[in-house]
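User: I'm writing a short methods note and want a consistent example. For WYL domain-containing protein, I'll paste the sequence; you return only the structure tokens, no commentary, since I'll be parsing the reply automatically.
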Amino acid sequence: MPNEQNTQDQLATISQAQRERLFHIDFKLYFLGSVNRTDLVSRFGIKEAAASRDLSLYKDLAPKNIEYDTKAKTYIQRDGFAPLFEYSGSQTLAALLHGFGDDFVGTQKPIVTCEAPTQLNYPNIQTLAFITRAIHNSQVLKIQYRSLSSGLSEREIVPFALIDNGLRWHVRGYDRARNRFADFVVNRIEAPQLISEEIPEEQTKAADNQWNRIVDLHIVAHPRLKHPETIELEYGMQDSALKVQTRAAVAGYVLRHWNVDCSKQHSLNGPEYHLWLQNTPTLYGVDNLQLAAGYEPEPSEIN
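Assistant:
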């Protein structure tokens, strides 16, 4: 078998379209254990002869990964399989849940039976399109915004990033009405209008201290748990800790989403608290800590 570097060198000389088909073969073998020409024909709209060439090329690149099952008339995963490509968790789960493809043509189906928590709302697509254009083209966005504290108001914001907090989507940007950086819930935005004008540097991403500050979170199994090793295994902890780096601007979302007990003495007792933030001082100066369960600010943060 060619060594890994030689294989990667060979992949680099192959067209993007064929690499995508090789990835498809690799994915099916890895996660389903089998693949055949019909899979490639139906997914990519190629001829059977082309599908056969792709399978032969894959076998040349990774002969220990694939063999032909004459009885089932399909290619199957061999013992000792080692994936030819790298897979991210988000990419893999998205494919398993929603099906292959980024062309959005046709109906995509889950690859295996699976369920995800019901999403109660999705970003309004028309609003989202205005936001992403504003971000991409460095434009100001004039909006009508509904907040829980002040109701409907008119704002001008300078957006630069989208944030998924696990429950809803936000847009991060400079709020000209309040002269500060803030997060806006996408589905509370109405009547967006793009404004093209020069944006002062103090209203850009580079000036957002909360966005640019990186916070180190040391998360451990909650000390009250009878078998903390269960949580250590579940979260893939190293040396009994999960060390996460996140932006200060989203730290509160992360801690809330994972129900991390942020009290200094791990005092929260609800059954949802499997995790505890071991280094609570790291949160000093983070803005959105009203979302961090149990966190008690220092007196200097209150004054």
